[in-house]
User: Fold these one by one.
Assistant:
Number 1:
Amino acid sequence: MTFIAMNRFKVPKENGKAFEDIWASRESYLDEMQGFVSFHLLRGPEQEDHVLYSSHTVWATKDDFVAWTKSEAFRKAHANAGQSTTRTFMGHPQFEGFEAVQSQFSSKRNAA
């Protein structure tokens, strides 16, 4: 069953580019992990004092995600997270995990 892991970040408007640059330049090691499907950094709605961002990973199973969180790859990917992002977002990220109960895919996805 597919598992989606998301972390939401409130980023002050003036820090948006720096926040995106940190994510673009970091080594994630996700490709090393069994069950990893995809990653997206999402920019969401703009509020008066911040922009909402979400890191969004898709895993084949919840067990694959849990294995990632306990792995050496996870530790390496997050080794400098507290130092490099503390000043770019407000508070702590908010984690949300979801198990897919229904999925639908485009029949035109690979047609060209």
Number 2:
Amino acid sequence: MNDRLQSWWDVNSFTICTLRPPSITLVGVSAAVLIAGGVLWIGDLISGAWVAVIVGLLGLGKDAFSLTIRWFTSPHASLKADDRSPQLLLSLRLTLDYEDQGYQIVAVPYRLNEYVVRSSAVDSFLRCHDVTLQENQELLNPITEKLRRNSEILEDALRCQYRQSWRADPPRRFVNEAKACLGQDLFPSQEAIWIYQGSYFHSFLTNELVTRILESGGSRPMILYRGSEHFPRIQRSQPALAEACL
């Protein structure tokens, strides 16, 4: 039960802080107007304080009340495997500069349609040499901006995963733990590696979701989101912002 409460809290706090942050200014002004109207109402009803009360309630209703409703509801939809993902994963190719560094696409043992890009040469280099790690939290900003451009549908996907995780047999944990994330690809020639702090939910929404579809419920289900449409088709040859987390 503690894990489920933690999961519920993590999903909602990630939604508020990262995906769909409410306008603090609007909520604050609405609350201030509502409180001021209540004070005036107690003092003198004829003063027109009821107008301030209504304005405050309308403002809070747009932001705070709707947000509270989302905290306790789950969309009438489900996450399923995207049937286009296997073919896309099989068609993934690396550029020559990655192959020169020994990078290969390797299937994850005992996991269907999951692959990693790894290099034994780079692995040996990291094990035998000291490498400087430089933290730059600003590297997370482009990922956050990308998530917010699709925040409504991604919130639905996150809430569906929360619901389906706890309805699985046996139930699965779905909590948002902090993760160290790479800000660039790894090459032995680098003097330093840029990193930043992300979270599991960042990985879920940028990595795992590309193999899923979000499908509406009802007798005529519709695809609301298809992850394969956001699949990275080309491996970039220059060090670039990596959305995958360690």
